[in-house]
# Entry
Amino acid sequence: MILYFEQSMTIRLFTLFISAVAVLNSCTSGKSALKQGDYYDAVLQAVNRLRQNPDHKKSREVLAASYQMAIDYLETDAQNQIASNANFKWRNAVGDYEKINNLYEQIRTSPGALKVIPKPVNKYKELTDVKNKAAEETYEAAILYMLKNTREDAKRAYFLFQESNSLSPGYRESVEMMEQSKFNATLKVVVEPAVRNSYDWNFEPVIFGVDPNQFVKFYTPRQAQDAGLTQIDQFIRLVVNGYSESKPSVTKSEAKYQDSIKVDEKTVNGQKIPVYEKISGSIVTFEKKITSRGSITLFIKDANSQVELRNSELIAEEGWVDRWATCTGDQRAIPQTTRKLCGVKEPSMAQNYLLGQSKKNLDNKLAQALTNFYDSY
# Structure
């Protein structure tokens, strides 16, 4: 009976596995995409399946049914785009021809698919032509944005010049115009020299190490002068407010412990019985604590209006703590986690430890504050 049950379960599990494989095969054959009218995706799925299994029947059927429809759809869409008055119509046509060429390459590298579609279509010549026109289209659109003379429009121009150059490398002055539009779009921020402080804290490496996005650049006053900047957008000023450390504070606590430990054995009525001895011990635990507080203020000012855009204090609060203890009596009675402090000498904090920790904390907070502020620029 048990054997019959195990065999029955095995058959049922095998049947479920076969069903799951069948469902998976039907999905990866592209049949579902074909039914939904996504001919391009149907072709890709079928070709991919035939690359794994050149004789997969459903995939062969899907490929045969969907390939020409995919080509016709993409070709018609490209021609409709070209004939329209839509913005970036040539760029849209590029996308269609690239899809046709992708199907061409995918089929050529799938022997099973090549048996179904022995002469796949390519549009490399047409793609070259529409890419040149798309490069001109995006270049002209970028020029119009440049003429608007705003940072946001200069950003749009930069990406369009970049696209024009990718469509047709070196098209006209796309590289030079890319650099110019990026310069126009870049927020130019001059970092004012900080007043020297007694802690020798220098935050300039932190400021110049921040890279919130490609359209923000920090300059020292000398760099701004050497670059011949005719317009400065913002100024950053950092003020070190101060740093302080508390005097060491020591607290103590005392605890007493008792326990019984096995010291021997004795025989009673032929049986060995352990002999225990009561022990006791006490521990006085000392805890030394030092705290610190350091702060800086970040000022960001608009260079044209002189309006203060940011005025925020950044605070670093740190602490150092250590413990030691004196023990009396039998230390075996003291819990092991506490006992390890017995005999430890009074510790001393390393020189300038909290000062260094405070600087690191302020470095991180300053970098995060600048990143958050300039992220949207």
In short: The domain at 187-377 is CATH 3.30.160 (Double Stranded RNA Binding Domain). The chain has two domains: 26-184, 187-377. The chain has a mean pLDDT of 89. The CA atoms of residues 99 and 246 lie 69 Å apart.
